[in-house]
Design brief:
426 residues, mainly alpha, 4 domains, 18 helices, 2 strands, elongated
Length: 426
């Protein structure tokens, strides 16, 4: 296996690149080597017998404590807990065979133990005969004297607090879910592509290409209010498989019209759980989420909703993907067939009645419905079939969306003109 092939396969496995894209990126990266540098053959990487042996050593040396390694996300750390190391009784610090020497030379204390350990991590193995797998494993970081002093000072200050437990921030409610979620968000740099807080801009939105009005429609979706928008069970499935396909991974599972694709991060189950709880807590959603049971449409209501859906005042399919390649080349919004398992009905009603309130600046048109007493009514011309209908017309449309079938959507396409207008990407 060459270096180029290694980089190529790495890109393919983690970034959902196409073969051509991965080959182009790997070819570019290999040009960054210094002139005159040659690389030894890496043919051993194709030897399956070395995999298990390598895995044992990776676990033995605790590599997953610092590095992200697929399949080892839940691997424990091999080092000693240091949170209160400064409070540990001196008798519990293992000076090993150097105890007498430390007492004689005057460094038999916490400071002396830390300084000698940091200067020479394997020092407390001196004089011992131990099998290789039982030797101390802390790496030698080649720390300077100033760095050793700084770290020793930090460890000496890592002591049991004299303050009562009530003084510490230790929430047991949704605030804990938010705190845990932010660790995962920062770990994977989600804000590099997504907006998670009002007025926060993603790094991607600052790229010159995305300043073009047409390319702004290509930005990944905002995640402000994500917990209120999507079903948490669907979100968990999506995070584990963003392409939403086990064979074709070179796609976006929801917005296949976007040029940029969400990577497959290979989140652990624990990380997925933290992210799902994080978005729910950030949007103040009740836990657990119980999907409301929507009233089935009567044949008359189905026809009314169909007429509303294809109304010239609300040509929904002009902007939303349908699965038809000719139609979807102009799509700028997700396929309605995903709504049933992806979205929450309550949020969907709020979205279609006042999208600018949820996402200021969205190109999803507002004013499609107006409030009339206790119900929403369509603001555009209504078909004659709506005469005498006293129900909530926004809710009627939502019920229709959540019961939409592929056959019904194909029927709608026959009624709807070709797409050309660009609107919202929620």
């Amino acid at each position: 296996m060459t270096v180029t092939n290694f980089k190529f396969n790495k890109l393919r496995s983690s970034q959902t690149c196409t073969w051509d894209e991965a080959r182009d990126v790997a070819s570019y990266l290999i040009t960054l080597k210094k002139p005159g540098v040659t690389y030894a053959s890496a043919a051993f990487m194709n030897d399956p017998r070395l995999k298990e042996q390598g895995l044992r050593w990776v676990r033995h040396f605790g590599c997953a404590g610092c590095h992200e390694i697929a399949g080892l996300e839940e691997e424990g750390r091999i080092g000693t807990e240091l949170t209160r190391e400064g409070s540990k009784p001196i008798e519990r610090l293992d000076f090993a065979l150097l105890t007498h020497k430390a007492k004689k030379e005057g460094w038999y204390d916490h400071k002396g133990f830390f300084e000698h350990k940091l200067q020479k991590p394997e020092i407390y193995d001196e004089g011992k005969i131990k099998p290789p797998l039982e030797k101390l494993r802390m790496p030698d970081f080649k720390l300077s004297s100033d760095e050793i002093t700084a770290l020793s000072t930090f460890l000496l200050g890592s002591v049991d607090s004299t303050l009562p437990p009530s003084y510490f921030y230790d929430p047991k409610d949704q605030r804990q879910a938010i705190r845990e979620g932010w660790w995962v968000i920062n770990k994977y740099n989600c804000m590099g592509c997504h907006q998670l807080r009002p007025n926060q801009k993603s790094m991607l939105s600052g790229v010159p290409k995305y300043q073009d009005p047409d390319w702004k429609e290509q930005l990944p979706p905002t995640l402000v209010g994500e917990g209120a928008r999507v079903d948490p069970n669907w979100l968990a499935r999506f995070l584990s498989n963003p392409p939403m396909n086990t064979k074709d991974i070179n796609r976006n599972g929801v917005r296949n019209y976007l040029k940029v694709r969400m990577p497959t991060f290979n989140f652990s189950n624990e990380e997925i759980g933290k992210l799902v709880r994080f978005f729910g807590a950030l949007a103040s959603q009740a836990q657990p989420y119980i999907p409301p049971k929507l009233e089935p449409l009567t044949p008359k209501e189905n026809e009314m909703a169909r007429q509303l859906f294809t109304s010239s005042a609300a040509p929904c399919l002009k902007c939303h993907a349908t699965g038809d390649p000719n139609h979807d080349k102009n799509a700028t919004a997700p396929n309605f067939l995903l709504a049933r398992e992806r979205l929450k009905p309550g949020w969907t009603t709020r979205w279609i009645t006042d999208p600018s309130m949820i996402a200021p600046g969205t190109s999803m048109p507002s004013g499609l419905f107006r409030r009339e007493g206790e119900r929403w009514v369509f603001a555009g011309p209504l078909p004659a079939s709506f005469s005498g209908y006293e129900g909530d017309e926004a809710e009627l449309l939502v019920r229709y969306l959540f019961q939409l079938t592929p056959e019904e959507q194909r029927r709608l396409l026959g009624r709807n003109p070709a797409a050309s207008v660009k609107v919202a990407r929620r």
